[in-house]
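Posted in: Protein Modeling Q&A

I'm a second-year student putting together a small comparison for a lab meeting, and my supervisor asked me to include a predicted structure for Amidophosphoribosyltransferase. I've never done this before, so apologies if this is the wrong subforum. The sequence is pasted below exactly as I got it from our records. If anyone can share the structure token output, I'd also love a short note on what stands out.
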Amino acid sequence: MSYEVMHDDFMLDKLNEECGVFGIYGHAHAPDLTYYGLHALQHRGQESAGIVASTGEQFLSHKGMGLVTEAFANNALEKLSGKHAIGHVRYTTAGGSQLVNAQPLIFKYKAGNLALAHNGNLVNANQIRSHLERQGSIFQTTSDTEVIAHLIARSGYDRIEDSIKEALSMIKGAYALLFLTENKLIAALDPNGLRPLSLGKIGDNYVFSSETCAFDVVGAEYIREVEPGEMIIVDEDGLHSERFTQQTQRSICSFEYIYFARPDSNIDGINVHQTRKELGKKLVREFPIEADVITGVPDSSISAAIGYAEESGIPYELGLIKNRYVGRTFIQPNQELRAQGVRMKLSAVRKVVEGKRVVMIDDSIVRGTTSGRIVNMLREAGAKEVHVLISSPPVMNPCFYGIDTSTREELIAATKTVEEIREFIGADSLGFLSVEGMIDAIGREDHAPNNGHCVACFTGQYPTEIYPDTANCVDK
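Accepted answer (user: helix_wrangler)
Welcome! Here is the predicted structure, written out as tokens:
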């Protein structure tokens, strides 16, 4: 009997971000540094990884499925050389995990070769793709990213920067993009800045990354964020910035701060770990609970749990331990064994929770299945009470910008009240942080609505137009 390897319930009950990008210009060890940068961004995507390097005259590339170490097994990195490189790690929802869709994508255009790495999701990709196919374009992948390449190839401009600008004027949605030609590295961020993208420097060499944690790994100095609607060009003349639109309004994804980004990353100058602690402190003010111990669901909720403990005076303990040596699990066609998958990922520490009133902090509840199993796990370990607090508001609406929720039916908060969710997961009490509390805790100072945050998954107010078949846009 064979079993399909797929995401288990633990992963299905978490939001998953699409991918991460990294690029460097002018460094003698560009492919190696890109590899290390991708390794630091591994949490943003575990389905595939790829690097394209330029010698100044030609591209050398390698892409593979799995983690960065798996994709570049058998000394694959040694086959790459060049002073310029871009890389990509990718997460995909079911059906799109194929090597053909792994990035960076490479295309021919009239002036030479072009490699492209994309973090995000386009909401009008289907409309553009259908239009281009009617005009004779032949697509090689099922990725929305390929739409961008076709638009660039069809441009009448001679300068690649102008061709990219024209393409970006036609697409809508979330995109942090890196383009590589034989002699140029170009970065661009969508007008809402929905995904993070930072600029750094190693000596005289410029570096781009989805998160600043990769700069620390490769020894780069952080310079600044790429601004919404900005295109930064790095070539032999140095670095210069251009605007591809003046119509910008910051709407960075709230979950970058809550869950996606690594705790040691800074997004727009705000440290992620400190932000999550503030989210936990805000939970105390909104939901003060009499308890004996605070614990967090590893790993992304630990910072918020520490913050709750500091603010409340209740001790924080490691009540839940994550098994770091369990990768993908084999899903058996048996519900009892299916539930065992969560136990493979997490274990309750009996001596910590036995006979105690426990507050369990988590960053989100998506479908609710895993939350219920963790609550039950704590009770089986002897917890007298289990109170669940979530350091984000209820996720009630799908995200179309690069997170794997495409229908409201997938989301428990869209179909159940907070009390019904509490009953479903078996907790003694349940509380979600308010939207206002979340924004205040993150502390971004921005004149844009919601202090420059995208809160669409909480409120249903999307920062861009949403097209009728947006939910059916092909995942990267």
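A couple of things worth pointing out for your meeting: Residues 1-11, 328-334 have pLDDT under 50 and may be disordered. DSSP finds 17 helices and 23 strands in the chain.
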